[in-house]
């Protein structure tokens, strides 16, 4: 398992350590299973019903890990084209650390399909998602989206 470093200096609501109001998600790369993983400790301010993680926050988390998966798997940037979420079980905050796992299902020149699973702190599968991303050529990703190249995500 390799820690993925956040090389961006921004205020992204999903991943920026600079955004105190955001999720501050962090990521790891499981090379053996071709999976990007995020473990996230739930925070009360992101609940819907008491002790239940809001569905919109779950969707945000799934979209965020998919973006990071594009950086790692396809070595470029993209934007969400379609997000389909299936809420199977409530995610109770009191169950502890939430784990998301993202895999690349398929990719073509300008699009990719990713699947994301969200598990609660007890390891129960609670939410699944299939996300289609519009993929930018690397030159545009660098120029318009500040994609720093794959090495920037793994340097010390």
| Gyration radius, rounded | 15 Å
Distance between the termini: 15 Å
Domain count, please report it.
1
In the CATH classification, which architecture applies? Roll
Helical/strand content category: alpha+beta
**CATH superfamily membership:** Hotdog Thioesterase
Order of helices and strands: EEEHEEEEH
User: Tally of extended strands?
Assistant: 7
Number of helices: 2
Low-confidence stretches: none
Strand content: 25-35%
Shape: globular
CATH topology: Thiol Ester Dehydrase, Chain A
Largest sheet entry:
7 strands, antiparallel
**What's the CATH C level?**
Alpha Beta
List the helices and strands and how they pair.
Blueprint: E1 2-4, E2 27-30, E3 35-40, H1 55-73, E4 78-87, E5 98-107, E6 111-119, E7 125-135, H2 138-145
Antiparallel strand pairs: 1-2, 2-3, 3-5, 4-7, 5-6, 6-7
Describe this structure in words.
- The chain has 156 residues and is an alpha+beta fold.
- It has helices at residues 55-73, 138-145; strands at residues 2-4, 27-30, 35-40, 78-87, 98-107, 111-119, 125-135.
- It has one domain (2-153): Hotdog Thioesterase (Thiol Ester Dehydrase, Chain A).
- The protein has a seven-stranded antiparallel β-sheet, with helices on one face.
- Strand 6 and strand 7 form a beta hairpin.
């Amino acid at each position: 398992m390799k820690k993925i470093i956040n090389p961006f200096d921004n205020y992204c609501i999903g991943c920026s350590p600079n955004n105190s109001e955001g999720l501050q998600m962090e990521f790891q790369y499981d090379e053996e299973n071709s999976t990007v993983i995020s473990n996230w400790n739930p925070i009360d301010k992101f609940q819907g019903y008491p002790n239940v993680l809001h569905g919109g926050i779950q969707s945000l988390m799934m979209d965020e890990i998919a973006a990071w998966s594009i950086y790692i798997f396809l070595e470029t940037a993209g934007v969400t084209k379609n997000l389909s979420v299936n809420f199977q079980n409530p995610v109770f905050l009191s169950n502890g650390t939430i784990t998301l796992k993202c895999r690349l299902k398929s990719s073509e020149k300008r699009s990719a399909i990713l699947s994301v699973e969200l598990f609660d702190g007890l390891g129960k599968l609670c939410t699944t998602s299939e996300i289609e991303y519009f993929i930018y050529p690397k030159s545009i990703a660098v120029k318009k989206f500040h994609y720093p190249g794959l090495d920037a995500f793994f340097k010390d």
